[in-house]
Structures are given as C-alpha cells and as structure tokens.
C-alpha cells in the first residue's frame, strides 16, 4: 500500500473520476481539482507527491502552473495530461520540469506506470543524494590522520587504487587500524564517488540472508517475497561495494562473489537471468586470509582475485610517531562534538600514551581520548582517567626504551624517553643532554653524522659532548 499522495487536476469530470478511482485502487491517497485556483488551494493543503496536471484548464495554463509548483517543490513529480494533437506543449512541459506526459484519451495502466516510474526515479535520486551526503559527512569527520612514512605509503596506495578503477582492492590490518576509512577514501577519490558506497559486514549478516542482501530477489523467490527486491550490488550501481570482514564470508557465497569479480554477473534469488554489475568491490579483513585458505575456510581463487591490489595497514605501535597528531585530532573532534574546550594532554599523559602498545589500534586511542574528555573537564587532560593497562605500560617504560611490545624504532625513542618528563626529584640539564645524545646514537646505530643532524648540532659538537659525558663511540 503506497502512502504517496496524488493530486488530479482536470476540468473534465469523467477524467477526474476515472483517475481518482484507478489511483485509489492502486493504493494512492488521491484528491482532485477542477480548476487552476482549486489546484493551488489543494496543493497547499494536501502537499501531494505527484500531480497529474491537465495542460489546458479553464482559468490557467497548465505549463505555468507546473512551473509555479516546481518552483515551490523541486522534487514534486508532475505528469502532464495533454491532447494527443498537442505534442509541442508536451515537449515544452517536459522542458519546464514535468516528469512525463500522457495524451488523451489515455489508458489508465499507462498513467499508473508513468507515476510508478517517476517515483522510482526520484527514489533512486534521493538514495544517491543520501548516500553521498552520509559518505561525505562521515569522510570529512573521519579523514585519515598521520604523516609517518608508513601512512604516506598508504596514501600513495589509496591514490593508485582509486585511479585503477576497475581492480578489486583487499585491505588488511588489525582491528581499528582504519580499514573502513581507507575503503571510503578509495571510493571518494575514484571516478565512482558520485555513485553510492555501500558497506556490508559479512560477519554480521546470517548466511541465509547474505545472498538476498547482496543480490536481491525476484518476486515469489520465497514465501514472503511479494515484490522484487534490489540487492546491494544493484543499489550500488557504478559505485563501490565494500565487503567488510570478508574472511567471515560463508564459503558458498565466496563462489558467487568470485563470479561477480570475474564476469561482473550475478543472479537475484529466484532469478533465471544474469544481472550485470557495474560496481567495484573493495574488501577488508583483519583475519589472515592465506591461513584461512590453508585451512580450507577461504577459497584460494577468490583470495588471489581479491589480492590483486593489497593494502596492508600498519598497527598503531608501528607508527607511534603519529600518536601526538592523532591525539590532537581526536581532541579537536570531540571538542566539536561535545562542546568541550580541551587544549591538549599533559606530558605525563603523553608519555603513557606513547608507551602503551594499543592492541585496539586507533579505535582504542580514539575511545581513550573520548573517555578522558567525558570525565575530565579541564583544559589539559591528565592521566587520571587512563586505564590501568595504559598507566602500567607507561610505568614499565620509564627507562626510555619504547612501548612494551612495540617495535624498536626511531619514533619511539623520541617520545617514550623519561627525559621528556620532569622527574619528581628534578634532573640536571647535563643528564638530559647525555641521554638525548645516547638515544640519538642508538637510533642511528652509532652513525654520528646522522645523530648530530637529528640533534641539530655539528658532528664536532657531538663528538665533543660525547667525550665530555664519557659516551663510547
Ligand atoms: N588514520 C586514521 N586517522 C584518523 N582516524 C582513524 C585512523 N584510523 C582509524 N581511525 C579511527 O579509528 C576508528 C576505527 O577505524 P575503522 O573502523 O576504519 O577500523 P577498521 O580497521 O575497519 O576496524 P575493524 O577491523 O575493527 O572493523 C574510526 O572510527 C576512526 O575514527
Ligand atoms: Mg572495519
């Protein structure tokens, strides 16, 4: 039963009567008007979705009325009723924004068909606009942050994947590393960005429903299938279908996805004909697909097909140098969302955040900052609301050698050193200098030129100070 409202405007009683009856029978809410004046009044009161408008009314010109209504509501569907001999006015009406026209005498079936088609077109337009808006908003809010060399590589890959439009992309990485953000970024930067990006969580949809969800069904495909229903591939059009958690896709479905990738074809449930898919597939998983292949849980042929363009996201411990930037980004974001005025975190807190190994990656960091901001209304966040795991990691790393479980790497020495914090009992500047020189040398495996560069001093000065502090070469 459609709840759409249709206004019939025609001065001929018989036409009004027959249209009202047919539309009412088809489940529309219908009102009728005989003149232009009455049509204006009914339009205001009844706010129709569709108007069937006679082009020739006793007190008004149908095309003028059409323009008037469309100026008020550009989404209004107007279908003109014209005399068969009047093709010129019909064309003028179409140019002025009518969705379609029917010539008198008309077949009621044709009128209903024309309305259904115009409404379907509008629905798809709305859907696209909706998806574009949601995607853009989400993307603006969730844009990728980080400038470490590994992330720069990822940005390059996103560009390559967006340009290599037809290829399937496989994004892997731990939970919370930003796989979905990367998938959206690829879509947004590809020529498909004007079409929908639709994500499907293959792990969240029961096997029995997944096929229906992806491919849709024909009318009568099963007991409850009273209408034909589009699946995600059809709705995505020439956009992107993001198959998230593909490692959890049932093996039977994997064969069907392979067919879509290889032949761009699939079948609706209960359908006898192949439907062509224009959508691009981007898949993601935090599982080890080669291992699943070995265990017989994932099809090898699908894995190779997906893996033509792999993107492997680094975990957060592999890019600790991005933590301060991510922290600033989340503070800024939650300031906006919650109306807070947080300016940053104190040195102690940063020390803990740098030392922790972040098994939940960026998502865990985001949640940590969000929680601290909810509980601490001061301008500078302190470590009082950090979890005990984070605090303990900071404590056990006070000796300045990077996060527990983290990789030894240049970035970590910079931030996780005890030097950054002022110890309770104070510290001499000489000691600070000595430790920094030792760290720089360690970072560059004893290369004095590099260590000196990194400390912004000449090699001679470095050597002089090494001697002064008794640091071996
Ligand atoms: N590089 C990044 N810059 C900014 N925010 C990020 C980044 N990476 C991840 N995030 C944030 O972390 C959250 C998790 O990201 P996302 O959902 O893309 O991760 P995922 O890899 O898909 O995780 P899962 O495997 O659990 O689905 C997002 O809400 C986003 O805010
Ligand atoms: Mg995800």
Q: Could you please describe the fold and organization of this structure?
A:
The chain has 473 residues and is of the alpha/beta class. It folds into 3 domains: 5-122, Rossmann fold (3-Layer(aba) Sandwich); 142-312, P-loop containing nucleotide triphosphate hydrolases (Rossmann fold), CATH 3.40.50.300; 317-427, Helicase, Ruva Protein, domain 3 (Orthogonal Bundle), CATH 1.10.8.60. It has helices at 13-25, 36-46, 62-72, 87-95, 108-141, 149-163, 179-188, 207-215, 232-236, 251-263, 289-294, 300-306, 323-338, 347-355, 361-375, 388-396, 410-416, 429-443, 448-454, 459-469; strands spanning 5-9, 29-33, 50-54, 77-83, 100-104, 169-172, 197-201, 216-217, 229-230, 240-244, 265-266, 275-276, 280-285, 309-312, 344-345, 380-381. The strands form 5 sheets. A 5-stranded parallel sheet has the order 2-1-3-4-5, sandwiched between helices. Helix 14 (347-355) packs across helix 16. It is elongated and about 105 Å long. The termini are far apart. The chain binds adenosine-5'-triphosphate and magnesium ion. Adenosine-5'-triphosphate binds next to helix 7 and helix 15.
């Amino acid at each position: 039963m459609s709840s759409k409202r249709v206004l019939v405007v025609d001065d001929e009683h018989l036409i009004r009567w027959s249209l009202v009856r047919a539309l009412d029978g088809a489940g529309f809410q219908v009102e009728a008007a005989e003149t232009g004046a009455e049509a204006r009044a009914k339009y205001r009161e009844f706010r129709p979705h569709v108007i069937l408008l006679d082009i020739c009314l006793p007190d008004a010109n149908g095309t003028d009325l059409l323009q008037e209504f469309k100026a008020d509501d550009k989404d209004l569907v107007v279908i003109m009723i014209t005399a068969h001999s009047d093709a010129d006015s019909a064309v003028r009406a179409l140019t002025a924004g009518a969705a379609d026209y029917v010539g008198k005498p008309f077949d009621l079936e044709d009128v209903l068909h024309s309305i259904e088609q115009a409404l379907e077109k509008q629905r798809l337009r709305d859907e696209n606009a909706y998806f574009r808006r949601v995607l853009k908003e989400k993307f603006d809010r969730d844009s990728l942050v980080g400038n470490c060399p590994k992330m720069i590589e990822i940005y390059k890959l996103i560009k390559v994947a967006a340009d290599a439009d037809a290829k399937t992309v496989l994004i892997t990485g731990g939970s919370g590393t930003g796989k979905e953000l990367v998938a959206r970024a690829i879509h947004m930067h590809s020529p498909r960005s004007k079409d929908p990006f639709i994500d499907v969580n293959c792990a969240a949809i029961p096997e029995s429903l997944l096929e229906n969800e992806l491919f849709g069904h024909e009318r009568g495909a099963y007991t409850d299938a009273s209408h034909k229903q589009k699946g995600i591939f059809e709705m995505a059009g020439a956009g992107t279908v993001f198959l998230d958690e593909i490692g959890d896709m049932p093996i039977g479905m994997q064969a069907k996805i392979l067919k879509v990738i290889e032949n761009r074809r699939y079948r609706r449930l209960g359908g006898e004909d192949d439907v062509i898919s224009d959508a691009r597939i981007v898949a993601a998983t935090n599982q080890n697909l080669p291992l699943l292949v070995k265990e017989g849980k994932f099809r090898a042929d699908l894995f190779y097909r997906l893996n033509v363009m792999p993107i492997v996201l680094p975990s957060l411990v592999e890019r600790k140098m991005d933590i301060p930037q991510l922290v600033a980004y989340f503070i800024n974001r939650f300031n906006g969302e919650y109306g807070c005025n947080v300016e940053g975190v104190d040195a102690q807190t940063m020390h803990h955040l740098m030392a922790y190994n972040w098994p939940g990656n960026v998502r865990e960091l985001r949640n940590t900052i969000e929680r601290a901001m909810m509980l601490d209304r001061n301008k500078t966040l302190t470590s009082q609301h950090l979890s005990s795991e984070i605090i303990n990691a900071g404590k056990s790393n006070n000796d300045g050698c990077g996060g527990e479980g983290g990789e030894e790497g240049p970035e970590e020495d910079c931030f996780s050193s005890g030097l950054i914090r002022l110890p309770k009992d104070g510290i001499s500047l000489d000691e600070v200098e000595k430790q920094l020189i030792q760290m720089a040398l360690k970072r560059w495996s004893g290369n004095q030129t590099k260590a000196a560069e990194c400390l912004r001093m000449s090699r001679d000065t470095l050597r002089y100070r090494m001697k002064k502090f008794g640091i071996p070469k």
